[in-house]
Design goal:
about 375 residues; alpha+beta; Immunoglobulin-like; 2 domains; 7-stranded antiparallel beta sheet; 3-stranded antiparallel beta sheet; about 20% helix
């Protein structure tokens, strides 16, 4: 009798178990192996537990609340509790380790613009039925795991939810990549380019390409080289050096509060450096250092953006901005070589002592672009 009851019970419950509302990242691998492999190598797959920089900033911002989760741990079931200080991130919860999960990104219904940060509204899923996945594919295929629907959200607004802006509790903007009203189209063009290969293994529609899910950006060398054009202008007898920078990106040069980019300029004569734009610290050259530094209510520097009441020093290149920098230099001679490098700190020096990071590579300068010009 009990055996028969168990068989009946299992037959009733199995559709509900099969069509649970949340689908894990790994469950996508069965039908979308290429996209899954791309996602695993992306920073969307990073989370509180394997991204030291994010974890340290979150810990120092508050030991009680975790209010970064809306963008960094959106799939967590207890997200509201963490935001209110009733729970903390815990690795035993699998959905907390999913990062910006596949399922979360593909159930966006719309994005609501707001002052502090935009808010993502998810589609309601019918309990007990297989979920509906949204995307940009024309005539998408459904499967035994989910239904699939094309949504205009994924062409224009999907990125706007997390990648637009963030304002802290003191009304200070601590993150901005997009202006109000901008769409996701340029984000997708650069960071999710079409790449060869079908989006799913069965490929019943014989598709030849898909949007890359590597979400390549600052951590990718080829993307860094595309960011800024450097043009050098000088001739013999000049005592000024002109450097023209063009931000080719559709967003500001500095977006995240921890970053810093700076110019390293040297003039070489007969193989020896006769001039450089700074001796010890990039901060010596204010116009060639691109960074946002925050201050507290008394004007003292602060490393954790959530504590900021204002700005100490800000220098940035806006999207598509062209700027000419002029430097006073020794009289230039024919044959002098001018070396201009655009460098990057993933974590700016003003944060090092506060964050105490174990991963020292985050504090090593990274070359973005380099130009060498010979005076003729």
């Amino acid at each position: 009798m009990f055996k028969h009851f168990n068989i009946v019970l299992l037959s009733v419950l199995s559709p509900l178990l099969l069509y649970a509302v949340y689908m894990t990242n790994k469950s996508c691998d069965e039908c979308h192996p290429d996209i899954y492999d791309e996602f695993k190598s992306s920073y969307h797959s990073k989370n509180y537990f394997n991204d030291e920089l994010h974890r340290r900033v979150a810990e120092l911002a508050s030991q009680r609340k975790y209010d970064c989760g809306a963008c960094h741990m959106p799939a967590a079931k207890n997200l509201k509790a963490m935001e209110r200080g009733l729970a903390r991130p815990n690795p035993i919860h699998k959905r907390q380790k999913e990062g910006v999960s596949c399922f979360y990104c593909h159930e966006i219904a719309f994005v609501k613009e707001a002052h502090k940060r935009n808010k993502i509204v998810l589609a309601k899923q019918a309990e007990g039925y297989k979920p509906t996945i949204f995307g940009s594919l024309k005539n998408p295929d459904s499967s035994d795991k989910h239904s699939m629907v094309k949504s205009p959200i994924y062409k224009r607004y999907a990125c706007v939810g997390c990648h637009s802006h963030k304002v802290n509790d003191h009304n200070v903007t601590i993150f901005r990549a997009m202006k109000k009203g901008e769409s996701s189209e340029s984000c997708i063009k650069c960071h999710m380019p079409l790449t060869p290969g079908p989006p799913e293994k069965m490929n019943k529609k014989a598709r030849q390409s898909h949007h890359s899910h590597r979400f390549e950006g600052i951590h990718d060398a080829s993307m860094r080289k595309k960011a800024v054009d450097i043009n050098i202008s000088a001739k013999p007898g000049d005592t000024t050096l002109k450097i023209v920078l063009v931000n080719k990106m559709g967003h500001p040069l500095i977006i995240q509060a921890a970053r810093m980019k700076y110019l390293k300029i040297e003039i070489l004569r007969d193989g020896k450096v006769i001039w450089k734009n700074f001796s010890k610290s990039p901060y010596e050259d204010k116009k060639g250092t691109f960074v946002t530094e925050f201050v507290d209510k008394d004007g003292h520097p602060v490393a954790i953006p959530s504590f900021a009441f204002g700005y100490g020093f800000v220098n940035n290149l806006e999207a598509k901005e062209k700027r000419t920098l002029v430097y006073k230099v020794p009289i230039l001679k024919k044959g002098d070589k001018i070396s201009v490098s655009l460098m990057l700190y993933l974590v700016k020096p003003s944060c090092w002592s506060t964050l105490k990071l174990k991963d020292k590579s985050l504090m090593e300068p990274i070359l973005m672009e380099k130009k060498i010009y010979e005076v003729k």
